[in-house]
Amino acid sequence: MGQGSSKFYAVPVGEKKDGESHVYRNPNNTHKLLDNFEGETTVQGIFLRSCQKYPNNRCLGKQVVTGENSRHYVYKTYLEVRNVAEQLGSGIKNLNLIPNPVMYEGQELRMIGIFSKNREEWLLLDIANTLYGNTMIPLYDTLGLESIPYILEQTQLSTLFISSTSVETLLKVKECHALKFVVTFDELPQDKVQQFSDKGIKVFNYEEVLNAGKEKIHPLAEVHGNDIFTFSYTSGTTGMPKGVMLRHLNFVTVAGGVVYQGIQLYPTDVYLSYLPLPHVLERVVVTALLGFGCTICMYGGDVLKISVDIQLVKPTIFVSVPRLYRRLYNAIKEKAEKVEGYKKTLFEKGLASKMYYLQNGGHVQHKVWDNLVFKATKEAFGGRVRLMLSGSAPMSPEVVDFLKCVVCAPFLEGYGQTEGCGGSFISRADDPISGHVGGVFSNIEFKVVDVPQMNYFSTDKDEQGRPTPRGEICIRGNGLFAGYYKEPEKTKEMIDADGWMHSGDIGLIRPDGSLKIIDRVKNIFKLSQGEYIAPEKVEGVYLKVKGIAEVFVYGDSTKSFCVAIIVPEKPFVLDLANTLGIQGSFEELCANDKVNKHFFDEMVKKGKAEKLNGMENVKKIYIEPTSFIAHGLTSNTLKLMRHKAREHFLKQIEAMYQGSE
Known about the structure:
This protein is of the alpha/beta class. Among the domains are: 14-33 and 444-522, Luciferase, Domain 3 (Luciferase, domain 3), CATH 2.30.38.10; 43-254, ANL, N-terminal domain (Rossmann fold, 3-Layer(aba) Sandwich), CATH 3.40.50.12780; 525-657, GMP Synthetase, Chain A, domain 3 (2-Layer Sandwich), CATH 3.30.300.30. It contains 22 helices and 30 strands. The protein has a five-stranded parallel β-sheet, sandwiched between helices. The protein has a five-stranded mixed β-sheet with strand order 16-17-18-19-20. A four-stranded mixed β-sheet has the order 4-3-15-14. Strand 24 (501-509) and strand 25 form a beta hairpin. Helix 12 packs across helix 15. The radius of gyration is 26 Å and the shape is globular. The two termini are 40 Å apart. This is AMP-dependent synthetase/ligase domain-containing protein.
């Protein structure tokens, strides 16, 4: 029985302890946490099960371009994918591309790296590693150039599979440590091959590895649930990224748990993979789909042409990030507002009618309005989408409800962290209420712990007097990572002695057991693109700008950029006013557009000089004449209390975000 059959998302188990809520579990797994996927305990087992059940189903689709405006997909079946993956895995063995496996905490890690966008070969290598017990180490551009040598040194990788777009980046790396081989998915010019050779790195072509594998196919490895399936390097808040070690068990139980969340996947489902596979959300989605015999189509490689890919693939499952969903929302609304006459009336009536049925029963389809009004918006997603999912950051309810109505499909909101294998909570397709992340997966349990300094308590109640515990979200169970590679102290900071992972997010448990994300404990936030920002790091850069005395950097997880409140030095502003030829009191000068522009330009310049990335640099600022200390926004050690600063400057923050996407 799936969770869709229960009106509760989660139920309390055991006794409540002081300072924390009850422990909550999925209603279907109150006695034992889920530890398998249809009896399988490894990703290898999931894939082999599908090969047996759906051998001739389309498994993997690759886009082939035959002309400037001509392209189509070619497919490999599950059996064909298995055969290629066996050749690839055997080729890695036959060429000895993992000459020095690493022993770590009693487990042999046979690590293989990859540095590439999503493509057919990415997933084939992933499956090959699964079949032969290797551990995948994905790299990606947004980690930053300085992170690559750090990861190469930490993992002592011998072999890295790369695409042509990653060649230049890798050649810029001065110290490649133990790297001996690169395997290129694309043909390399001879001068690039020579440059690698000058670094002591031998270049193989992908086809060479396949051919080497055909000479001798090796038996599959014996893999266990606690074996490390992959690393996922998270962008560091300060310093270098951390290597999150994720087990087969983590992926298996998240993938297996979807049915207990009321989600049905079928062998006929088709998925377009364009979100980065190095990120755990995309990886776990693909794992789940492979487990149900679905078809995975790789995008064409250009996110700006994703609409073309959608029309070619016509996906039935669509996963994206809030930023793209908001762009679609804005585009559809803008187009609708330009329509006049009876068409405008029809759109408004159709939307109002569907909103009514959505909020009074959770219905997202309507026989009349869907064909009469919303056919075009549905076709923009390919015409076959039956399920939308967002999971990297919270979304506003009005956007979610609007998209449910105009795309004519349920919209699921999820919540999870890399350390929790991407999926810990998800909403139900038939839930008429948006703005929460639904219920806990069957493989974990959760609780919230009091955060008294922010006035969040497990004894809190809502306006009706119903218990609505609030506090830091903590999870425990089979979804949790094995630890940060070679960083045991940081692992201990994340997971306590009782096995609870402290998320740093503040949650509210609604009466039906669903969870709503309402705040953040840790001084790090996520923008709508899913990018984490460490505000203290950014503030440290801006404090180097001449004339700035105090800075508060803020980011709304439903927005795509950061903003800042700055307190300037009064003498500097007065001197600046003379230079700019403007007059007024200090308070008036702080509100002057020319003064604002000066500080903003200097902050951008300093940000670039200090190598802040585009997401870290603020896009708007507000100049506050009064010190944060005078406003009572600092602690007794003069540290900024962010939750108080946010409340105090809420009006100014909202004004800076006004009209943003």
